[in-house]
Amino acid sequence: MLLAASLLLKALAAALLARIAWLDFTTQKISNRDVVLLLCLGLGSLQLASVVAGSWWDMGLSALAGLVLFVGLFPLWILRKVGAGDVKLMAVTPFLVGGSDLVVFSLLLLVFALVTALLVKNPFLLPAGAFRVYIQHLDRKGVVPFGVPISAAAICTIAFEIAYSLNALILSL
Fold it and tell me: First CA to last CA across the chain, in angstroms?
Protein backbone atom coordinates (compact mmCIF):
# COMPACT_ATOMS: atom_id res chain seq x y z
CA MET A 1 0.00 0.00 0.00
CA LEU A 2 2.81 2.42 0.84
CA LEU A 3 4.59 1.57 -2.40
CA ALA A 4 1.41 2.33 -4.37
CA ALA A 5 1.12 5.70 -2.61
CA SER A 6 4.76 6.45 -3.43
CA LEU A 7 4.17 5.61 -7.09
CA LEU A 8 1.07 7.80 -7.15
CA LEU A 9 3.08 10.75 -5.81
CA LYS A 10 5.71 10.11 -8.50
CA ALA A 11 3.01 10.06 -11.19
CA LEU A 12 1.65 13.38 -9.91
CA ALA A 13 5.17 14.79 -9.96
CA ALA A 14 5.59 13.65 -13.58
CA ALA A 15 2.39 15.49 -14.53
CA LEU A 16 3.62 18.63 -12.77
CA LEU A 17 6.98 18.32 -14.52
CA ALA A 18 5.20 18.23 -17.88
CA ARG A 19 3.40 21.45 -16.93
CA ILE A 20 6.67 23.05 -15.84
CA ALA A 21 8.34 22.05 -19.12
CA TRP A 22 5.54 23.60 -21.15
CA LEU A 23 5.53 26.82 -19.12
CA ASP A 24 9.31 27.10 -19.29
CA PHE A 25 9.21 26.54 -23.04
CA THR A 26 6.55 29.19 -23.60
CA THR A 27 7.42 31.80 -20.95
CA GLN A 28 10.97 30.96 -19.79
CA LYS A 29 9.69 31.03 -16.19
CA ILE A 30 9.57 28.32 -13.52
CA SER A 31 7.46 29.38 -10.57
CA ASN A 32 8.53 28.90 -6.98
CA ARG A 33 5.10 27.40 -6.23
CA ASP A 34 5.70 24.60 -8.73
CA VAL A 35 9.20 23.90 -7.40
CA VAL A 36 7.96 23.75 -3.79
CA LEU A 37 5.11 21.44 -4.81
CA LEU A 38 7.62 19.19 -6.60
CA LEU A 39 9.77 19.17 -3.47
CA CYS A 40 6.78 18.12 -1.34
CA LEU A 41 5.81 15.36 -3.79
CA GLY A 42 9.41 14.14 -3.94
CA LEU A 43 9.89 14.18 -0.18
CA GLY A 44 6.59 12.37 0.34
CA SER A 45 7.44 9.71 -2.21
CA LEU A 46 10.94 9.23 -0.79
CA GLN A 47 9.55 9.03 2.75
CA LEU A 48 7.11 6.28 1.77
CA ALA A 49 9.77 4.40 -0.20
CA SER A 50 12.18 4.66 2.74
CA VAL A 51 9.62 3.21 5.12
CA VAL A 52 8.96 0.31 2.72
CA ALA A 53 12.69 -0.33 2.22
CA GLY A 54 13.56 0.16 5.88
CA SER A 55 16.48 2.40 4.93
CA TRP A 56 16.94 6.16 4.73
CA TRP A 57 19.92 5.91 2.38
CA ASP A 58 17.97 7.16 -0.68
CA MET A 59 16.68 10.21 1.16
CA GLY A 60 20.12 11.13 2.47
CA LEU A 61 21.72 10.68 -0.94
CA SER A 62 18.97 12.77 -2.55
CA ALA A 63 19.45 15.57 -0.01
CA LEU A 64 23.20 15.56 -0.57
CA ALA A 65 22.78 15.57 -4.36
CA GLY A 66 20.25 18.41 -4.17
CA LEU A 67 22.60 20.48 -2.04
CA VAL A 68 25.57 19.83 -4.34
CA LEU A 69 23.51 20.76 -7.41
CA PHE A 70 22.24 23.97 -5.81
CA VAL A 71 25.69 25.04 -4.61
CA GLY A 72 27.27 24.09 -7.95
CA LEU A 73 24.69 25.86 -10.12
CA PHE A 74 24.21 28.96 -7.95
CA PRO A 75 27.37 30.67 -9.32
CA LEU A 76 26.07 30.07 -12.85
CA TRP A 77 22.89 31.89 -11.91
CA ILE A 78 24.96 34.76 -10.49
CA LEU A 79 26.82 34.92 -13.83
CA ARG A 80 23.44 34.85 -15.67
CA LYS A 81 24.28 31.62 -17.48
CA VAL A 82 21.18 29.78 -16.19
CA GLY A 83 17.93 31.00 -14.71
CA ALA A 84 17.03 30.84 -11.03
CA GLY A 85 14.13 28.51 -11.79
CA ASP A 86 16.47 26.10 -13.54
CA VAL A 87 18.79 26.06 -10.52
CA LYS A 88 15.90 25.42 -8.12
CA LEU A 89 14.42 22.73 -10.37
CA MET A 90 17.76 20.94 -10.62
CA ALA A 91 18.17 21.09 -6.83
CA VAL A 92 14.72 19.52 -6.30
CA THR A 93 15.03 16.83 -8.98
CA PRO A 94 17.11 14.38 -6.86
CA PHE A 95 14.17 14.23 -4.43
CA LEU A 96 11.88 13.25 -7.30
CA VAL A 97 14.03 10.54 -8.85
CA GLY A 98 15.67 9.25 -5.67
CA GLY A 99 19.35 8.77 -4.98
CA SER A 100 19.53 5.34 -6.56
CA ASP A 101 18.36 6.62 -9.96
CA LEU A 102 20.54 9.72 -10.20
CA VAL A 103 22.80 8.06 -12.77
CA VAL A 104 19.84 7.28 -15.05
CA PHE A 105 18.58 10.84 -14.63
CA SER A 106 22.03 12.28 -15.38
CA LEU A 107 22.43 10.29 -18.58
CA LEU A 108 18.94 11.21 -19.77
CA LEU A 109 19.57 14.86 -18.88
CA LEU A 110 22.74 14.82 -20.96
CA VAL A 111 20.87 13.43 -23.96
CA PHE A 112 17.92 15.83 -23.65
CA ALA A 113 20.21 18.84 -23.07
CA LEU A 114 22.23 18.00 -26.18
CA VAL A 115 19.03 17.62 -28.23
CA THR A 116 17.73 20.95 -26.90
CA ALA A 117 20.99 22.73 -27.70
CA LEU A 118 21.02 21.17 -31.17
CA LEU A 119 17.45 22.30 -31.87
CA VAL A 120 18.04 25.84 -30.59
CA LYS A 121 21.12 26.19 -32.79
CA ASN A 122 19.53 24.41 -35.79
CA PRO A 123 15.79 25.18 -35.76
CA PHE A 124 15.41 24.04 -39.37
CA LEU A 125 15.51 20.45 -38.02
CA LEU A 126 12.02 20.96 -36.60
CA PRO A 127 9.12 19.98 -38.86
CA ALA A 128 6.54 22.61 -37.91
CA GLY A 129 7.01 26.19 -39.05
CA ALA A 130 5.56 27.72 -35.88
CA PHE A 131 8.03 25.88 -33.65
CA ARG A 132 10.87 26.79 -36.00
CA VAL A 133 10.04 30.50 -35.77
CA TYR A 134 9.73 30.31 -31.98
CA ILE A 135 13.06 28.49 -31.60
CA GLN A 136 14.74 31.08 -33.83
CA HIS A 137 13.28 33.76 -31.53
CA LEU A 138 14.79 31.98 -28.50
CA ASP A 139 18.15 31.76 -30.27
CA ARG A 140 18.11 35.50 -31.04
CA LYS A 141 17.29 36.27 -27.40
CA GLY A 142 20.08 33.94 -26.28
CA VAL A 143 17.68 31.97 -24.08
CA VAL A 144 17.54 28.20 -23.71
CA PRO A 145 14.57 26.84 -21.73
CA PHE A 146 16.68 24.41 -19.69
CA GLY A 147 13.64 23.39 -17.64
CA VAL A 148 12.44 21.39 -20.64
CA PRO A 149 15.34 18.88 -20.73
CA ILE A 150 15.43 18.73 -16.92
CA SER A 151 11.72 17.90 -16.84
CA ALA A 152 11.95 15.44 -19.73
CA ALA A 153 14.81 13.56 -18.08
CA ALA A 154 13.00 13.48 -14.74
CA ILE A 155 9.75 12.29 -16.36
CA CYS A 156 11.55 9.47 -18.18
CA THR A 157 13.40 8.46 -15.01
CA ILE A 158 10.14 8.43 -13.05
CA ALA A 159 8.52 6.36 -15.82
CA PHE A 160 11.37 3.84 -15.56
CA GLU A 161 10.97 3.71 -11.76
CA ILE A 162 7.21 3.15 -12.02
CA ALA A 163 7.64 0.48 -14.70
CA TYR A 164 10.32 -1.29 -12.66
CA SER A 165 8.20 -1.20 -9.48
CA LEU A 166 5.11 -2.48 -11.27
CA ASN A 167 7.16 -5.25 -12.91
CA ALA A 168 8.58 -6.29 -9.53
CA LEU A 169 5.09 -6.21 -8.04
CA ILE A 170 3.66 -8.39 -10.81
CA LEU A 171 6.53 -10.88 -10.54
CA SER A 172 6.05 -11.15 -6.78
CA LEU A 173 2.41 -12.20 -7.19
Answer: 14
Q: What is the pLDDT of residue 40?
A: 96
Q: What pLDDT does residue 26 have? A: 85
pLDDT at position 33 is 97
Q: What is the pTM of this model?
A: 0.89
Instruction: Tell me the pLDDT tens digit for each residue of 144-168.
Output: 789 999 999 999 999 999 999 889 8
The b/e string for 47-77 (b: 16+ C-beta within 10 A; e otherwise) is bbbbeeeeeeebbebbbebbeebeeebeeeb
